[in-house]
Amino acid sequence: MTGQFSRALTTNQPTQDYPINLTAPMIVIWTVSKTSAPSGTAQDIPKHSLFTGTQDPTYGAKAIHFGNPSTCAQQTTASVGGFSTPSGDFTASWVLSADGRSVNITMAATTTGYVSLGFSATAPLMKANADTYVGWVIGGVCTLLDSLSTSYAIPAVDAHNDLTLISCSEVAGKTSITFSRLLNTGDANDIVIGNSDLFLVWAYGSSDGSGTTYTKHLATGGGIANILGSNSSSSNSTSSSLPKANNSATFPITSTVPQFASSTGNFFVWWTIDPLKKSVTFTMIGRTPGWVSIGFSTMPLMSTSDVVVGWVSDANGGVTLIDSWSPDYD
Fold first, then answer.
1. Eight-state DSSP code of residue 239
2. Is 282 helix (H, G, I), strand (E, B) or coil?
């Protein structure tokens, strides 16, 4: 399925349309379905096949820099980097060791309770198979848990602790914990940190934990980070590997190499910025007879995403394009 649409960089619906950022990466979510929607409403679109705990080949997320595609996934320098929420209530930073075998990570939040940081290779189910670190400070004594999150319940503590505590503090209402871990711990419950994007999930609570338990978080969110360095999302695919567009003559593509291609090779997207009209035109191709979608968000999650969905009717060739907002996971 091939589709093309245009939209203003900044629309007149700021609460449900994210502005297209040309100066920094933004998170793009893509979906390819194997079944066409039976009617013209977003609520009637059949769900994609989302497999809990594994990277679904019909679903993904990526940090893309629309103003500079060659650096669209650049998140950190080669040895040091970080993450911060827009309000700064949660921050994380990391520094690669001199021997390149381990990384020092600092997680901090504006709370006197616990802080948590996790990494996952699967999106958007960041809390499924997420290597999660949780810690708190009581009377200057730090508790740090090496855990595995397999659902939206409290993560289970690993049988083997692969974290080394470096320091911790709770000062002026802010909790900060620094620890180190090997890039590859050899533990099946720990994610291997390499030179590629990881999905980041953060959280903090209003109170400290006790033992290995703690209450539900006060705030949570996500992002995408490359701990070891930049990793361009530009594809090395050639025109021979691309699916043929049904109406290629009406969808001019300036390059046969897509500006983004999914690692599974079933979703491709190109875009062109028109600075005079202050608009962007997207061309997306999905290896499917059904529907495809592209969404924009502040987190690699379906929830609170600005989503465009389209398909071509098998019955009459009619085109349906829906501008929608995903408030949650349904």
1. G
2. strand
Reported for 207-210, long-range contacts at CB under 8 A and 24+ positions apart, including other chains, are: 207/112, 207/113, 207/114, 208/112, 208/113, 208/114, 208/136, 208/137, 208/138, 208/143, 209/114, 209/134, 209/136, 209/143, 209/145
Amino acid identity at 94: W
How many CB atoms neighbour CB 75 within 10 A? 22
Q: Quick one: pLDDT at residue 138? A: 97
What is the dihedral sign for C-alpha 242, 302, 111, 189? negative
Per-residue pLDDT tens digits for 299-323: 766 667 889 988 888 777 788 888 9
Q: Write out the two tokens for 313.
A: 């009717």
Measured CA angle at 163 (ends 142, 175), to 5 deg:
35
Indicate the pTM of the whole model.
0.62
Residue 257 has pLDDT above 90, yes or no: no
DSSP string, 126-168: TTSSEEEEEEEEETTEEEEEEEEE-SSSPPEEPSS---EEEEE
54 near 121, Cβ under 8 Å?
Answer: no
Each residue of 137-186: pLDDT tens digit? 999 999 999 998 877 778 889 999 999 999 999 999 999 999 999 999 99
Q: What is the mean pLDDT of the chain?
A: 78
Distance of CA 217 to the CA centre of its chain: 20
